[in-house]
Design a protein that fits this description.
This protein has eight helices and seven strands; from the N terminus they run βαβαααβααβαβββα. The chain is an alpha/beta fold.
Length: about 190
């Protein structure tokens, strides 16, 4: 049976290339992958690329057009769209919203909708304040049912001492572990 994966992206634009590689990898592994974009990810042009170009790349990699609005993602839970929902990259802002039950973006509402049915959500952190203000949100989410993290590490300890980024190459393993209710270890590398 084909694994159905929702793949939500937030505005950590410097990791979009890693996310795209993993979308391609998951698709090659036989998973059905549907992109979901935060408003920021869907509309912001940056030095890492134009928003419309990223949307085209995500569509080409998965064969599915991205879900972009609250009305697009609301049925995820009630209709059982996905076996697993991935948030990669997950920014500090999104961590804060999730930890506080705020579902005002396509990504956070997708998570809420997925959790409504008790299905797993896999979070790949990418934020410059993970070891600062966002750590309490990571800790709250770590202790929540059906939420799992991709192992993470400091990406530049000398210049960004509070920054953590998930090891995107471990996303597939984290998905498979989450399906059986296991947190992939070690969490911090």
């Amino acid at each position: 049976m084909e694994l159905k994966v929702g793949f939500a992206l937030c505005g950590s634009f410097c990791t979009f290339h890693r996310a795209l590689e993993q979308m391609e990898r998951l698709t090659e592994e036989g998973m059905s992958v549907t992109p979901i974009l935060s408003v920021c990810a869907a509309t912001t042009d940056t030095r890492f690329g134009l928003a419309r170009d990223w949307q085209e790349r995500f569509t080409a990699a998965t064969g599915n057009r991205p879900l972009l609005t609250l009305t697009d993602v609301e049925p995820i839970g009630p209709k059982g769209y996905f076996d697993v929902l991935v948030v990669a990259p997950c920014t500090g802002s999104t961590l804060g919203r999730l930890a506080n039950g705020i579902s005002d973006t396509p990504v956070t509402l997708a998570v809420k909708s997925q959790l409504r049915r008790g299905r797993p959500v896999v979070i790949a952190v990418s934020t410059n304040d993970a070891l600062g203000f966002s750590m309490r949100n990571i800790a709250l989410l770590k202790n929540s049912k059906h939420l799992y993290f991709v192992p993470m590490s400091q990406d530049d300890a000398a210049n960004k001492p509070n920054s953590l980024v998930a090891d995107f190459t471990k996303l597939s393993a984290a998905i498979h572990a989450a399906q059986v209710g296991v947190q992939l270890q070690p969490l911090f590398e």
